[in-house]
Amino acid sequence: MRLGLQVSSTSPTHRIVTTLKRIGKLGRVLRVRPPLLPVDDTPAAMELEVELASTRPAEALRRRMERFAWVSAVQLSPISATEQRVAEADRPTVWTRVPADSLDWIADTLRELAMEHSVASMQETPVQRIAGDRGAYLVRRLFDRVEELRLVPFMSVSHRLEPALRDAARRDGKQARLQVEGGELGLDRGLLDRLVGPLRHLVRNAVAHGIEEPSARRAAGKPDEGCVTLSVLRRSDRLRVMLSDDGRGMDPAALRRAAIGAGVLHPDAAKALDEQALLQLAFHAGVSTRGAADRLAGRGAGLDAAARDLAELDAHIEVRSTPRRGTKFFFDLPIEQALVQSLVFSRDGQLFGLPLRSLRQATAYGACPDGIEIVDLGCGQPPEKDAGYLLVLDEPGRDVGLVADDVIGRRELWLQPVSSAFAATTYVNGAAMIENGALAVMIDPRRLLSRAW
To answer: Given a cut of 70, is residue 333 above it in pLDDT?
Structure first.
């Protein structure tokens, strides 16, 4: 169902919510693709796309939608119905609002309950342990549901980026649109809020430096309207974000001249850089290839600010560019997980947890392979040749092993995160309690390997 809405910036969100509530009375809302919001007070046409499971005839739905004074157009397209959608079709969608702090409190309480249960399970009888396993399963299901409620679709970020894109395009007399791929992926609201700033800088940069004027695009055989594509993909505990444009691409030689002019590089050092290293110069403060500076571009501050903001999120931004075809910026973000499959080991009396996904193999310390880089988290003497273990990390291009006195075994740990200030200065990203009540600190392999040992 595609609905054309006529609204102004004074009440767009209220109008969208009202429309969704009324649609929810006609069936089960399965998916929503939100519209782009206007940036001024002039009435604007927006398109709201809704996937609805309903037993009502299409014409009945059309007539119902046309009754809304703010709906200017209605387009219905039947989709294949699965058994689940048919079963849900007669259930109306009920909407409610819950403060984010309340969901945070429930999630924290469930973590504590899970840890208390893991400690209590050590004193249970076999019969009690069966009931306890059922209780642990229910706690996990409830926690997973609460985590889902805390997520917001990635596509919602388009509402906050579209004004920046249109403002930059209007300033330079260009035409551009924003396209979001993977927008249905749910992200934590706090993470999404922190992503808006750097993404806004990247969008402005794409329009100012990448997208060409309509006449230049026509001469190059491109449509008048340029496209800025924002895509997101989840890979295990990492989030890959990419922003690309179909513009002119970046000029490494121009970046070299700009870096030399800004005093970032000495001319002799600049000559030794390859093309990829020259592209990375765009993230240095004061480096800009724009001829004249204004309030949005040309000061060499946008990409520098984006890189700094992303560094605070433990993400490193990279760029690839092809002349006359466009530029791609991409970075990976770590996703915090509450329940982590881990290998628990000890070293010098301290318990550690290592995510299983980061473990390549475990071997005896005496059988240490040649050429391996050894990392010892302890303060005492290394284990004897016939004692101890070496945990080899699954790190591409590096052979790194952690020294362990003893391997406790595989555990499913409920992780309690540490403060961001503490995590930024160490290789620990949380702590968890194991069966006997002892505390194990969780290792972040990426931070661990970034330190000098």
So the answer is: yes
